């Protein structure tokens, strides 16, 4: 290559959104330019404000040494969730603009150009899946799973930090694409030949390819890490069939990550070969086979759906049993159902493209396999309902989400059974009916689950509860906002409105899009309430404090630790005798600490810079490749093996926490617990709840 | 450790190397999981190759491009290299001094590099006959699959060098031992992939 | 069991593996080199030999055994095989089906 692309490659001033305003002809182009520039401005401003605050408060050093280089699974979990909230804010704003466009875009025009609209739905989908949902659930598993199995950290703590930073690198690339346009217009699934160089030679699809590739690498490593942790790091007595159900779903999700991310890596890598080196893998001519892309993408895409939903099922299992004060009904059935779903998820990918032209027999086979998944999922719904039966049910905030989930998810599932029938799918594919269906699964299923989990485990991570009043407000807004935004899309889909439409000329659609916009507005309000809730809770943290760490009368090991837990989690590795380990322990009046002479030195991993370094290299490399900055890409690519080899030379990787320090910490915790009055479930949402619960059987006996 | 219980894929170091063996149980298992993920990667590239195999786009096909003799030599080189890494691994387990381990490791690396050299030679020869990836879907799929394996072999050699560097710097410590066990697992795994490639691509193409 | 017998047994394992690998590779190459059988026969023989050789490598180079192995190792290999069959087989089935309908 003779052209090294120095210094700017193919990057020109056109890439800045402001240029769209300058060159605009007509009202819509102008508005579109303003919308794009405002978004870019908000991104830049947000980054600047963050930088200023960190500098002004002198937070750089703690940020670096306590967070970015930390390999503590709890901190990594928190960083994942913070990241996913930031990305959620952006993707939600994009969704709102799209709903707005479909109202004002009736009879043409509107506030964004079709090209811009296409970027919006592409980033919205890409972010929601790869940079909101995945980090959220990965963060949740990171925080909770090692605590539930009685481990001090994951199996590979440094790799965990690398995974996080690779995911963040992909997110940064997406944020950069807001300022240096354009992003892909090919949707979150990026189908060729539309995303091939012949039709789409610009930077857009390249941004998409590298952002997704970074995230899929990170996710593969995460999957390996979690699976090995669960297989090898369980505490004594924690057999597989004693693991809390959330950990079971974490295991199945990580197995899916290990096996389902490679097809995505292949799909994006082969698309990159086509675009960069003129290969003919998915091209129109030259012997390419674009249908193989759809095949590869959905070989990933379908298991991905279950990667997303299984951890939420885990959260629901914990929520239903904790807030019903009962052990989970049908534990074994739930475990088997989870595994059945995980395996079946590899057998149904063709239902994403029933209309590609394969024979009816083949479609029928995949249609039947798809309907089969309804069976284990139905088993789960019944198990959760029976968990509540004769329980001491409290309609707490997580429980409110859970009840909404039961109804809404079942409706979404039924629409999925309809779509699983190829003859019906031929009528409804590519319409808003499909969009309504998958949002109906992912919002009440996954997102509500994650918010419920966030509400439930937040006090464990930070030592105080989230304010309940704002919690209920947010929950009701989410529930009704969801129904308002997506139920109309079922009707629109059946009326024939295609998905991804910037403007249209059918008057009958307009009222439904207005309702959907109102629903979207309610969802934006719901998100705002979540932020208000966080603000209020931090302000009132003294009132909401639960230092003893068991605010909900929890059942698994993590509730036996102080809130927040110490870096080393357990003063001594617990010995587990059965399911619901902490619920059993509580009844005896004991805690997780060892006898006074039972403390030992604890070895913990030291901080590592590998994660941030790999993240920075990944970001730089993705950016350089997108804009053809070969002079930059080459040295960065060469640095990757150098950094990895250097990592191999690291030896001094552990620090020792002396036994007496552990003993002091735990004694202080014991003393705190001893002087904190126990609280009954009736006072759960009062300031009397300091995290010291009266176990349910004792409360019932009184 | 008794001969009936193994803790991870690949030759276990056993009780003479207790601390390294403990570490290996988790680390080698994790690495093996990664290999399985990699196996899916190769499996899908092979399936893609099978699908693209008829799409020669009027360009050269397998009979015009592949040479059995060269593939045979490559297969033998890689097999010998796999056995050599096995002996290096054995020496690590049973010898007190690392000399034998190093010798066998260097032999394995030399054989693997010879393999890569033959492979590059093949590719260049193919390109001379118009067999470049841009020529057809068939050749694109070929070049997405086969060089990826070669790249893995080269990376394994680089890793071997890094291990030798660590050995020089730190001696035969647990870090070196566990790395060596993982490297051997990678080496054998790449031989498994090659069985798939030579059977499917070369024998399948020339039969 | 002493170290010495361990060592001899393990070295033998690699040599058995080598012998099996050669026994399964050489005939396949010979069939193609001298065109000794019809095309379909060669392909079937190659496929069977490849599967056997993979099994031999797993057993003698990677020391995977059906008994005495930790359970998760075996689970993992079997599950990987299942997924490979589903994904690889599914890809070929689907795209071949499309191919024939477009031809």
TrEMBL record, chain A:
The organism's place on the tree of life at top rank: Bacteria
UniProt entry tagged with the keyword Electron transport: yes
PROSITE patterns registered for this protein in UniProt: COX1, COX1_CUB
InterPro entries on file: Cyt_c_oxase-like_su1_dom, Cyt_c_oxase-like_su1_sf, Cyt_C_Oxase_1, Cyt_c_Oxase_su1_BS
TM ranges: 34-56, 77-97, 117-137, 158-180, 207-231, 243-273, 293-316, 328-350, 362-379, 400-420, 432-454, 475-497, 509-532, 608-625
Main location: membrane
Annotated region (Disordered), positions in chain: 683-702
Molecular function GO terms recorded: cytochrome bo3 ubiquinol oxidase activity; cytochrome-c oxidase activity; heme binding; metal ion binding
Cytochrome oxidase subunit I profile domain boundaries: 58-577
A single cellular component GO annotation: plasma membrane
Subcellular location, record wording: Cell membrane
Gene Ontology biological process terms from the UniProt entry: aerobic respiration; electron transport coupled proton transport; respiratory electron transport chain
Membrane topology, as annotated: Multi-pass membrane protein
Keywords of this entry: Cell membrane, Copper, Electron transport, Heme, Iron, Membrane, Metal-binding, Respiratory chain, Transmembrane, Transmembrane helix, Transport
Family the entry assigns: Belongs to the heme-copper respiratory oxidase family.
Protein name per UniProt: Cytochrome-c oxidase
Automatic annotation (TrEMBL), chain B:
Signal peptide: none
InterPro entries with a match to the protein in the record: Cyt_c/ubiquinol_Oxase_su3, Cyt_c_oxidase-like_su3, Cyt_c_oxidase_su3-like_sf, Cyt_c_oxidase_su3_a-hlx
Cellular-component GO terms for this entry: plasma membrane
Keyword Nucleus attached: no
PROSITE patterns: COX3
Segments forming domain Heme-copper oxidase subunit III family profile: 29-206
Transmembrane regions listed in the UniProt entry: 28-51, 71-92, 101-118, 138-164, 185-205
Family note: Belongs to the cytochrome c oxidase subunit 3 family.
Protein name: Cytochrome bo(3) ubiquinol oxidase subunit 3
Species name: Thioclava atlantica
Lineage: Bacteria, Pseudomonadati, Pseudomonadota, Alphaproteobacteria, Rhodobacterales
Automatic annotation (TrEMBL), chain C:
Protein name per UniProt: Cytochrome C oxidase subunit IV
MF terms (GO), sorted A to Z: cytochrome bo3 ubiquinol oxidase activity; proton transmembrane transporter activity
Any one of the GO CC terms: plasma membrane
An example Gene Ontology biological process: electron transport coupled proton transport
Membrane-spanning parts: 12-34, 40-62, 74-96
PANTHER family xref list: CYTOCHROME BO(3) UBIQUINOL OXIDASE SUBUNIT 4
Source organism: Thioclava atlantica
Sorted UniProt keywords: Membrane, Transmembrane, Transmembrane helix
